[in-house]
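Please go through the protein record below and see whether the fold suits the sequence. Record follows.
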Amino acid sequence: MTTIPPYVPGHNLLKGKTVLVTAAAGTGIGFAAARKAVEEGARVFISDIHEGRLAKAVETIEAETGQRPGSHLCNVTQEEDVQVLIKAAIAEMGHVDVLINNAGLGGSVPVVDMSDDQWNMVLDVTLNGTFRMTRAMLRHMYERKSGAIVNNASVLGWRAQKEQAHYAAAKAGVMALTRCSAVEAAEHGVRINAVAPSIAMHAFLSKVTTDELLAKLTEREAFGRAAEVWEVANVMMFLASDYSSYMTGEVLPVSSQRA
C-alpha cells in the first residue's frame, strides 16, 4: 500500500467562475468537489436532499475556507426541485459557469432478487437525475454560449461486479449521456465530460460496505489503497477549468486498477 499523498492546495483554476454541485453534503465526492471549487477560486452553490447534512456542509466549508456557499434543497428525481434549484443558484450567483452532477444512489443486490423498485430508484437518482440537471442547465448555458458540465460516473460503467447491475447500468447510462449531450452542446460553446472513479474512501461508504468487499476492491488497485475523495475532486476541477478547453464527451477514469 502506498502512502496517501499530501493534500494539493488550490491553484485558482476556477478563479472568477461560478459552480453548482449536486449531492454535496456528507463526506463524499460531492462535498470534496464543492470545497475544492472554493479553494480553486470559484463562487459555489451546493444542493442535497438532506436538510441537516446540507446545513452542516455549508458551515464546514465556510469554517475551512472562509467562503460561505449558497445552498438549496433538491431531490433530483423531481423536475420541480431541479428547476427551483437552478433558479436559486442563478438568482444568488448571477449565472452558472460549471455544473457538477454528483447525485447518485447505489446498493448491493443480485439481479435475481432485485425488485422493480430497487432498479428504478437507482436509475432515477443516478441516471435520470443527471439527465434532468443537464437538460435544465443546458438551457441556461446555451443562452450564455459557454459553460462546462462534469458528471460523476464510475468504472462500473465499463466493468462488471456482482450485485451491482442497477448501479452499473445507471453509470453506463451517465457515460452515454455525457458523450451524446456533449456532441449537441459543442456548437453552443458548452463542454460536457465525466469522471469514472474506481473506489474513493469516505465515511458513508465504509458504513454501507462490508470490510470484506472494501478489502477486495482495494486489492484491485495498483496503489494498494482507495482514492481520497479530494483526488477525484481534483480531476473534476481540471475538467471544469479552462485547462481542458479542447475536451468534451470524454470519460476520465480516476483509478489505479490493474489492467
Residues 116-144 form the longest helix (29 residues). The beta strands are 18-21, 43-48, 70-73, 98-101, 147-152, 190-197, 200-201, 227-228, 251-254.
